[in-house]
Amino acid sequence: MLIHPWDAPTDDAEWQHWLATHDFGQLAANGAPGEAPLLQPLHFAYDPAHREAVTHLARPNPIWSALEDRPTVLLSVVDDYAFIPGPWQAAEDQPAEHGVPTSFYAAVQLTCTAHVVDDPEAKAALLQRQMGHFQPDGGSAPVAVGEAPYGRLLSGIRGLRLEVRDVRAKFKYAGKRSEAVQQRISERLAERDAPGDAAARLHQQRRLAAAASTSTATASASAQ
Fold it and tell me: Whole-model pTM?
């Protein structure tokens, strides 16, 4: 994933905050030589304190042999995307028809070492961690070995701990454009109000505010 300086996160907190509310992605594992990579859509729970994501899959899933042979994987999450028509992006001194269309999106890619979890007690604990993330209000029975209803199902799945080794994040929201052009795009997003437009506009306004705050702080420091 190409990340220009103007698309990079302002700090780690930006992508961590975003990932905390985006817990569905695709896990990419290398296939056998000459074969395409395996791509598995899944829910996961990211734990920033331990720098790992936890999930589970059915035992018959074809991804297991790939993970055991080649445990380096990529967990990719993309959301808050919107198509931006060319005229919206035209510079102030350009005809509208000369503007170049583009895509807005947020993306986080976690390079991980995959650890397969087969011990029943460890699997139950992993599933309970996921349950705590996705159902914080409870409502389901505890996941425990030998206890209904989940105990008998544990043998049909394998757990997966994804130890995060590297993070690449991108927030592509016209950061290289002038503030006037960015504000025009935000106005058009609000007017169009298609699926994804509100989230894209929120990112753009948030990053504009962060850039303005940084510029003010820099100017103040230079004046001292």
Answer: 0.91
